[in-house]
Specification:
The complex is a heterodimer of chains A (269) and B (469). Chain A is an alpha+beta fold and 269 residues long. Chain A has four helices and 13 strands. A 13-stranded antiparallel β-sheet of chain A has the order 6-5-4-3-2-1-13-12-11-10-9-8-7. The chains are: A alpha+beta (269), B mainly beta (469). At the A-B interface, helix 4 of A face loops of B.
Amino acid sequence: MLKTVQLRKIWKPMVAVALLAMPLMGHAETPEERGLAIFEEADKRGDGYVDSKSGMLMILKDKRGNTSERKMRVKGLEGKDGDGDKTLMIFDTPKDQKGTALLTFSHTNKDDDQWLYLPALKRVKKIASKKKSGPFMGSEFSFEDIGGSEVEEYDYKYLRDETVEGQKCFVVESYPKDKYSGYTRIVTWIDQEHYRTLKAEFYDRKKSHLKTLAATGFTLYNDKFWRPDLLEMVNLQTGKSTVLKSSDTVFGAGLKASAFNKNALKRAR
Amino acid sequence: MNKIAVAALTMLVFSSPSYALFEPLFDEGTWSAEMNGEWRYFNDPGEFGQSKSAFSYSAQAEYYVGWNDGDDSFTFTPFVRLDQIDDNRTHLDLREAYWGHVGENWETKLGYTRIFWGRTEFLNLVDVVNQKDFVEGDTTEKLGQPLFQLSLVHDVGILDFYVLAGFRERTYQGEDGRLRAPIVIDVDNARYDGVEKNNLDLAVRWSQPVGDNLEVAVSIFSGTNRDPRFDFNYDLFDPKLIPVYTRMDQFGLELEYIYEGWVAKLEAIAVETPDESYTAAVGGVEYTFDAVFDSDIDVTLITEYLWDERGSDSAGFFEHDVGIGTRITFNDEQSAEILIGGIIDFDTNEALYSIEASRRIGESWRVEILATVVAERGDQELGQTVSEIAKSLADSGFTTDAISTQFAINLLSDIIDEVGLLALFNGEINTYGEFVETLQQVQRLADTDRKLSILESDDYFQIEVKYFF
């Protein structure tokens, strides 16, 4: 009893001092706030791209080293009025899937919408949000990796600083809010100079390390936007990997909103 | 006169302004193509002596060119099939040949194309813009339809208007083909009843997501019924069914509700024809187990109920049937997929099962295997004498054409009376037995309760090898 009273006595002034000192010290960020701030800054640096398009080559590798390729084109439209980006992905190969197209509407406040167009059937199918953790076109990328994401879709936690290949990075952990995400957490290495994601580790629903993503060959477009020319996703559990090489990237290509609706999906070329 | 017209047309096309207009059509276009070798093996010889196995070859090319930054485009997709045994299956079709134009919130298409409406898996009742290319065997294959389409795109909903010109008649298997009806369908002499052959048909469809999980579409079609009814030609020694096309007005509703791994689907139609008005629906649910056993494999279980108000009077196979199926998607590099399905009529115990599997081989090949089995056929009681058959036919409502019905009644009653008709049976070729057999076949077709019995011996296995250019 006595002890408690004494402790209180000691605590009281300490709390008072701390409260007084806080505005003077500046807001001491929690690791959660710092993690969010880093991702918000990274997002801000990508703002204003309006639209983009690029060619992509996807190389699938199995654990014996056999490879197969898919060619596709990606078009993106920056979201307006607080809603997320729109992405259209069109397949040129494998040839039996030519014309297959995926349209994604990212949303900041609810599940993303995804529609897949199957040209052989002339049919547009909505992808259930539960399916987003599934593999995209047989690759190591899942629908959720491909569709793009908004800052608001995760909780964050800053872990530490670390140097990756000579570049000082923030290491931030993020936790998907979406219950259908295939991940429990993602650890991301973001370089401190340009806020580019250099590396990410994905942990599956059983919390074991599933995949590692490495981004290399960064190029600066329009003096403002950094994009990697090469992304490699390695699945540590199966030994398979997928490389995504982008080419002919153009920002501000003058794409129209009419190229990002369900009709456009059917005529995507 | 003709020569002058041709010369004038040639001059017009090659004159510089029009060349400038059409030039983009021939520059920078891209071709792609698909060749398909198919082999079918039937468990039994055909009921009418058709071959047990058959090779078939098909090819489809696509030419696409876009200009004005892709706002204008031209797509040209010819299709050809050559069949070893079935002359009717050997055919040519223009799947697509249209000019497309895209505006800010609208787009148009002018020319031949194929349009899909629908949500459900086993049958798409609402999908009536295009005629079915029935000889293809796959009931989802459709003929190109000449049309003009205006599509208005708003934030969420899409409103499509269609003017359909140039009706396409359904293709049917020929006499030597497999999977044909017991009486050959006379595709060369189709009739039109109360409708012009080149009637302009109209259609409208509005589709819109409601909330995050529900997608709704409503459609109206007014024009020539894509499904013909049949009349018998009453030539008992060269019996044929004559397709008769009539008018139809259809109101269609499509619903799809996605919730977690569940998808609930419904297609319903209300149809008005000169002969009948009815409603029909297909509805059901599917559930997807993704990443089963920690693999990339998705397994989807599908069940649908197929219902038609007309019951056994409906022309289709499915009036109160249950469809069950499983789709296994491997999500692998070869895009491997297996589909197992069955349609069961619990009233007659008729059941049709099929299994389909496909995968890519290398970069340019794809192999598809299909097997279809009628597991249970309803037993038909066929009349053994002309009067028995005449009575069952009269009860069946099979012929709706009043004149031919009267003709049939007269013919049959003459035969029953055996008045001067013995002359028809001249010796070995045209025997009384053959004649009764023809009538029995008509009776089989008329017995719509036991529809699968017309696929008497058509269980088959099919392998397709496709090459993509």
